[in-house]
Amino acid sequence: MADQPHILLLNVDQWRGDCLSIDGHPVVQTPYLDSLAAGGTRFSRAYAATPTCIPARAALHTGLSPRSHGRVGYQDGVPWNYPVTMAGEFTRGGYQTQAIGKMHVYPERSQLGFQNVLLHDGYLHFARDRAGNLDSIDDYLPWLRRELGREADYFDHGLGCNSHVARPWDKAEYLHPTNWVVSQGIEFLKRRDPRKPFFLYLSFHRPHPPYDPPTWAFEQYINSAMPTPPVGDWTEMFAAHNDAARADCNVGDISAARLQRARAGYYGHMTHIDHQLNRFFEHLAQFGVRDNTFICFVSDHGELMGDHHLFRKSLPYEGSARVPLILHGPRNSRIRAGGVSDAVVELRDIMPTLLDCAGLPIPAEVEGRSLLPLARGQEASVREVLHGEHLYGGQSVQWLTDGKEKYIWFSGTGREQLFDLAQDPQERHDLAPQCDAERLAWWRQRLIEELAGREEGYTDGASLLSGRPVAAVLSHVRTGAAAQ
Fold first, then answer.
1. In the beta sheet, which residues pair with residue 119?
2. d(CA 227, CA 328)
3. Which residue of 25, 36, 378, 398 could cross-link 373, Cys pair, CB 3.0 to 4.6 Å?
4. Which H helix or E strand runs over 146?
């Protein structure tokens, strides 16, 4: 086992796919992630098929599609009973497996196959409301109190966990949850079993709100010139849901000043994480394992951040569903330095990719595909079309993309959208009302095929059926039965 490569999975929360300076973002600066991408391969069409925390992480940890992992919306409190998981396969393969940071599973202390978990999910209302003692669901909080020598909380500054209100972190920088994840990761490197390869999962709660980066990171962006968010010619469809007066709004044209502060907090988190990742990379080198470690950086979903007067996630638009994905390997891994792949890939592909990097077998149940051949510049087919879905506003929003176009169907109203991503990457113009009927019918038929046999009854095999009842979790997850 001493010759086996180490595997480092870096998972951030709510980081948009376009927010890397190497990807041409006009504001955010991520110099160390840029260096990682320059030494590896970046996937420019990576998506979260179910773009909120819980279902996205189900895909990440199981390698399954939404239909199979069964979490097609956001719902807390549903047990995670998956028999095959990424960490479980690494543990079975002789790896020392450690998770640090956000898991967002239920029960909260579920290990998902890891040998050890140091947990910090952030401010989860569901978990807090149930926990008699917060120490039972959080390892960061008791550490914070010990460091300060008094009662304290990461919520002392009052910012909401889904709010676009922003301000700098109110404590010393080393006490920030981002620093804590990296510090605990360094401690793992010191104390790990040197006879075994490791699978280390560093999972950051940020740049998810609260938007509270350290002062220097907030100030780096607060006076920056920001581009105007794109607003599509179709945004009237969400006008009835306008809740701009709320600090945690989903829909609304908020003031320029509020949006400026939100972006400063959001981008500040990214640069802070970027610097802390470099801190960890230096320790990998110091401990002599950097040159034998595969590193994967990915987010669970994005953040709309005012695009089309929308905020947060759940919807299939690029700001919400597209995520950053970088794969970097040892010198002998044959991963292309500076490579960029435009293949349509998804979170379910991470598990088989990392098992492939480690030379471990990929379980037959896994529906994702290894991206290692693509990262090596080989001709490889992952998928022709990606299917995704998520509940939003009492209906299921179903979508398909081949990376060039995107088709969306709203199950409650039956409304369709079609975007030309090649010519209109910001999805400003909905082509569905005036496009060629045959073109729209082709996408509709593909979705009918994807939804055939679904318990909700979205299709009779010939047409899409709107108005069907929806649920955030499919019945086989609730009952523990096999997916149909």
1. 101
2. 31
3. 378
4. helix 140-148
Q: Are 244 and 2 in contact (CB under 8 A)?
A: no
- DSSP for 406-461, written as a single string: EEEEETTT--EEEEETTT-TT-----TTTS-HHHHHHHHHHHHHHHTT-TT--B-S
> Quick check: is 269 catalytic?
no
Specify whether 53 is catalytic: yes
CATH class of 6-375: alpha beta
Residues 9 and 354 sit within 8 Å (Cβ to Cβ): yes
Catalytic-labelled residue, pool 6, 19, 53, 176: 53
Q: How many CB atoms lie within 10 A of CB 90?
A: 27
Among residues 119, 170, 180, 116, the alpha carbon closest in space to that of 146 is found at 180
Whole-prediction pTM: 0.98
pLDDT tens per residue across all 484 residues of the chain? 668 999 999 999 999 999 999 999 999 999 999 999 999 999 999 999 999 999 999 999 999 999 999 999 999 999 999 999 999 999 999 999 999 999 999 999 999 999 999 999 999 999 999 988 899 999 999 999 999 999 999 999 999 999 999 999 999 999 999 999 999 999 999 999 999 999 999 999 999 999 999 999 999 999 999 999 999 999 999 999 999 999 999 999 999 999 999 999 999 999 999 999 999 999 999 999 999 999 999 999 999 999 999 999 999 999 999 999 999 999 999 999 999 999 999 999 999 999 999 999 999 999 999 999 999 999 888 999 999 999 999 999 999 999 999 999 999 999 999 999 999 999 999 999 999 999 999 999 999 999 999 999 999 999 999 999 999 999 999 887 655 4
Is the CB of residue 113 less than 8 Å from the CB of residue 363?
no
386-479 and 6-375 share a CATH fold: no
Domain covering 386-479 assigned CATH 3.40.47.10 in the classification = no
Catalytic residue among 104, 164, 269, 283: 104
